[in-house]
Amino acid sequence: MKPAAYAVLNLDAVQHNLAVVRHYAPAAKVTAVIKANGYGHGLLRIAEAAKNVDGFAVARIEEAIQLREAGFQQRIVLLEGFSCAEELIAIAHYQLETVIHCVEQISLLEQCQATEKISVWLKLDSGMNRLGFKSTEFLSAHQRLKNCALLNPKINLMTHLANADDKNDAKTLAQIDLFKEVVSDLDGEWSIANSAGLLAWQESLTDWVRPGLMLYGISPFPEKTGAQLELKPVMSLYSKLIAVKQINPGETVGYSGSWVCEKPTRLGVVAIGYGDGYPRYAKTGTPVLVNGLRVPLVGRVSMDMITVDLNSQPEAKMGDSVTLWGMDLPVEEIALNSDTIPYTLVCGITQRVQIVENK
Ligand SMILES: *Cc1c(COP(=O)(O)O)cnc(C)c1O
């Protein structure tokens, strides 16, 4: 018995998408960003599918420890670093690489009693104003790290782009220029590019690139799909029709009657809802594939169900297959119809969705 809602993961696509990364950044080493449970695809599963990369990056220490305990020996970068002494001890113990973004972390490093050496990425805040040292504080932070006995002598250097998905925004070049200016006299390897930087900003290609979203076959640009960038989606989300019925003009469908039937309508009920991670804010008209053909969603998304207009498909019946996104229906398009970004959709798949690996 197949579950109603399931996601098929095409893990071969990860290697295809990595080849696209290498096409754009042939000289760079690749840190595969697999935070947030591999963008909802499964942390260990994606680490295995991408295991030939030069390193992994995650946000939290729990994610990194899970990778080590599963036997992954690659470099692992902690993008949020650490915020207490216990985490620092664990970083040394598990030989993780950590981002250093604030002065409190440097004090913890100076006081740490660990015996294993630690490798770090010193982060410049070049304009995101989230994590990182300001350009005026960067060199003194670097000097303090140089004198810190706990650290491997080579200090790596990084920053993060805030607007790289907008190819017309001058902020990206300003961020890159500031970074290069601040770090130019320091040794250590550089890392700037996320997926959008990698695909749209040559200037951001340095020693290391840090692609996340594109590894999963998804475009970071609102105006382009992954397919238009030669990427292949890893995740496809499916369900099935669980009821088909006739609705008359004047009747409403779903909670709060937000959709009013205007002409006789064959209505399909699909077993997927926000309880599975389908976006609550998907609008009437959002495309859904029934037996491979597009039909529009109508009415509100419920926890367990959505409703679709089947007038264009008189043959559709209970049990028929429904595609919510993935192969043949870009998740980017569902995101646009839901006023969100594709990152939130793949990250938001819930426990109830059964994962089927297609290797
Ligand atoms: C998440 C993240 C990335 C990857 O970003 P994508 O847009 O998914 O490619 C790279 N660097 C940092 C610091 C991040 O937090």
Give a brief rundown of this model.
By secondary structure, the chain is α/β, with parallel strands linked by helices. The protein contains eleven helices and 18 strands. It has an eight-stranded parallel beta sheet with strand order 8-7-6-5-4-3-2-9. A six-stranded antiparallel barrel has the order 10-13-16-15-14-17.
Helix/strand layout:
Blueprint (H helix, E strand, L loop, with lengths): L5 E5 L1 H13 L4 E5 L1 H5 L3 H7 L5 E4 L2 H9 L5 E4 L6 H9 L3 E4 L2 H9 L7 E6 L10 H12 L9 E4 L11 H13 L6 E2 L3 H6 L7 E2 L25 E13 L4 E2 L5 E2 L4 E6 L16 E4 L2 E6 L7 E4 L11 E5 L5 H7 L4 H6 L6 E5 L1
Parallel strand pairs: 1-18, 2-3, 2-9, 3-4, 4-5, 5-6, 6-7, 7-8
Antiparallel strand pairs: 1-10, 10-13, 10-17, 11-12, 13-16, 14-15, 14-17, 15-16
Q: Which structural class should the secondary elements be placed in?
A: alpha/beta
Largest sheet: 8 strands, parallel
What's the number of structural domains? 2
CATH class of the largest domain: Alpha Beta
How is the CATH topology of the largest domain named? TIM Barrel
Assembly context of the chains: single chain
In this entry the ligands are:
pyridoxal-5'-phosphate
CATH superfamily of the largest domain: Alanine racemase
- Tally the helices: 11
* Sheet with most strands: strand arrangement: 8-7-6-5-4-3-2-9
The parts where pLDDT drops under 50 for at least 5 residues are none
State the distance separating the first and last CA atoms.
21 Å
Helicity, as a percent range: 25-40%
How many beta-strand elements?
18
In what range is the share of β-strand residues? 15-25%
